[in-house]
Amino acid sequence: MCARVAVVLLVLLCLLHATPALSEGDSLQIHPVRLAILGGVTAGTVVAVHLYQQGAWWQGARAPFRFENDWDYALNVDKMGHAYGAYLLSHLFTYGLQWSGVQRSSSVVYGSLFGMAYQLYVEVEDGFHRDYGFSPGDAIADLTGAMIPLVQETVPPFRSFALKWSYFPSTEYLNELKTTPSRVFIDDYEGQIYWVSWTPRAMFSGRMIKWIPEWLGLSFGYGARQLADPAGRHQIWALTLDVSLSRIRTGSDFFDALLTALDHIHVPAPGLTAERGVVKLGIVY
Rounded to an integer, what distance in angstroms lies between the CA atom of residue 92 and that of residue 97? Predict the structure, then answer.
C-alpha cells in the first residue's frame, strides 16, 4: 500500500472519529446518507489508487496468473507492511460503518472483511504482472493484519495490543531520490520499523497495576538495514516504552480523534536496539 494512501487513511480515521456518531437509539438503523457517502468515497478511492498503482507498479504487459514466493524479500519487512496496511484499512472501514449506523460488532466483522478483500485484490493484480506474481506470504500477512481487529473484538485482552509504524528516511533512499524523484518512501524498507505495542492497563483493567498510567506501555519493533548488500543486510530489533495516544483524553472530540488516528504511529521513545549483536540504549524512532 503506497505511502500517500496510508496518510489519507490516517486523515480519514481522524475525521470519522471527530464526526459525531449516531446516537445509541439509532444504532440499529442504517443512516442512508452517511452510508452512501462512505460507499462513494470508498469506490472513488479504490479507482484512484488502482490508477495510481497502474502507473507506479503495474506498468508493462500483463502475464498469465502465477504464484511467486518471496519469503526472503526485504528480510520480511514488507510482510510486516502488508499486515499493518490491512490492519489500518480494517480500522478505517470499521469506523466508517459505525459512523453510518452499523452496530459495532457488525462493523468490526465487515471492516475486517473489507480490509482483507482490498489487500487480496492488490495481490491478485500482482499475480497477473510479469514482474511480481501472487505472493502467498503477502496474502498471509494481509489476512493476519485484517483479522486483528476482529480478534480484539472477540477476545478483549487482545485489545491491549496494537500494530504501529515508524519511519526515518535511509541514506540509500535519499541518494536514490536525486536520480529517481518519483520513488515513494513506502518502498524504503530500511527506514521503517514495524511495532507490536502492549498497554498493561488495557489488559488487566488496572487491577494491581494502578501505578502505571493508562497510556503507558511497551513496544517491540522489527526492521532491516543494508538490504541492497547481500552480504551485509541484517535485521534490527527494538524494545522501547510506548505511548498509547488513543488512551489520552483531552476533553475535545477533535483532538481525541486526532490522537486516535496518530496512535497508529510509534512516537520516538527511549529504549534498546539490537543490531548485528550490538545492543544500544537511546531514543528509538
Answer: 9
Rounded CA separation 12/28 (Å)? 24
Residues 124-177 have pLDDT tens digits of 989 998 888 899 999 999 999 999 999 999 999 999 999 999 999 998 888 888
Q: Say how far apart CA 68 and CA 77 lie, in whole Å.
A: 17
Residue 267, classified by CB atoms within 10 Å of its CB into exposed (0-12), middle (13-18) or buried (19+), is middle
Helix, strand, coil percent values for the chain (each to nearest 5): 55, 20, 30
For residue 161, give the 3-state DSSP assignment.
Answer: strand
Global pTM reads 0.88
Q: From CA 269, how far away is CA 26, in angstroms rounded? A: 42
The values of phi and psi at residue 235, to 5°, are -90, 160
CA distance 192 to 49: 22
